[in-house]
Specification:
This protein is mainly alpha-helical. It has helices spanning 57-90, 100-107, 111-131.
């Protein structure tokens, strides 16, 4: 049977502080001493879809072309959504309809481009309604 009066210790073998009794101020624990300096994390080099790690020029051309086409398709699709949003914002049936100049200001476009985007958006909306 363990001795009830024996001091408890942590895994390092250092005796644990005794429990403070009534009227006894609690013991202050000192922070643990660092035995090593943590390494400063260096920022990782910027990577662009790991293209910089491809050494074969044929493979690099294939993969970069694939990414170019994917980004181009994504940009075209995003432009379609911009046009639809512009058309919706310019819809005169809305109580808060915006003018092409206001849309241009929000989207950082020229007013002429905003007019064209509203028209393009309306044509996309007509296509969608004809498909459904």
């Amino acid at each position: 049977m363990p001795d009830p009066h024996a001091e408890a210790s942590d895994q390092s073998g250092t005796p644990a502080p005794a429990a403070a009794g009534p009227g006894t101020p609690p013991r202050r624990l000192r922070p643990a001493q660092l035995l090593f300096e943590p390494q400063a994390s260096e920022p990782e080099p910027e990577r662009f879809f790991d293209l910089e790690s491809i050494e074969d020029p044929a493979e690099l051309l294939r993969r970069s072309t694939e990414l170019t086409l994917a980004f181009r398709a994504a940009a075209e699709r995003a432009t379609d959504f911009q046009a639809i949003a512009a058309a919706q914002l310019a819809d005169t049936r809305r109580f808060d309809a915006l003018t092409p100049a206001e849309i241009a200001d929000r989207a950082d476009w020229t007013p002429d481009y905003a007019v064209r985007m509203v028209e393009y958006g309306r044509s996309l909306q007509k296509q969608r309604s004809a498909e459904h």
